[in-house]
Amino acid sequence: MEGHVFDELLDHSSEDKGRTIWTSVMPLANGKSEHDLVEPFETYVDGLYYLPGDLRLSEFENTLASSWSGARAQEPHDLAVTCGIGRLAEDLGTQLRVDLVIYDIGPNIGPLNRTVVLDADFLSVPLSCDLLSLRAIRTMARTLAQWIEEWQLIFSLAPAAEQMPAGRTAFIGYIPQRFRVYKNEMVSSQAAVLTRIQSAITTDFIPTLLRVGPDLVPFRTDLQLGQVRDFGKLATEAMDLGRPMFETRAGGDQLRQSAEAAFAEIASRILDRV
Fold this sequence. Notes:
By secondary structure, this protein is mostly helical.
């Protein structure tokens, strides 16, 4: 999506003609009990649609934070707020007859990510090969387990549980990304950190989830879904054009082919697992 188009979306997302996720959930943030159904954007790929995020979702995140305790108390409006994004995805999925909904969320453990993760059936984790990701993977495991356990209580008491997500999000793998390459290999400093991350996933992340339930880790081996190296200018131009990296003119043919192969492998492995 080009920059001026994105600016236009954000400038009008609070209006009736808005077409972002914030447009949909804004009524919930304003005290209403239902979200608005907005029209997603079609892409040049048949059957592929997207609904943009919005900087104003930070306001909805505040609403989600205050509604969590109300959801535990089975307050109807707070339950509607907590399930709002999931119900939007469900409504759009039914309307468009889609087979798969993909959430793309940032690396944090705030209320917005909590409501998205609990709505998802599966979770894959992109991570950088650095010490921050190593630390975050341990924190994420404990937080994810806590979210799921708390939601199970909310879900078990809800009078309309059939309209709510089960909240049993299964971890299906991780994707190392944005690493540097030398002679077609990950540079040694980042490779060393990745080894430590892989160890933390095996010894900490997975056991923490398994203590909540074996269904949360349906695959115990071969959890690396692929790798996404630092593709430099390919990524920048792809964002500017709203096209895949391998359909840009940046870089050389070999680099574009490498990007296409990397994402094809990841897509194939995720589809196999879901």
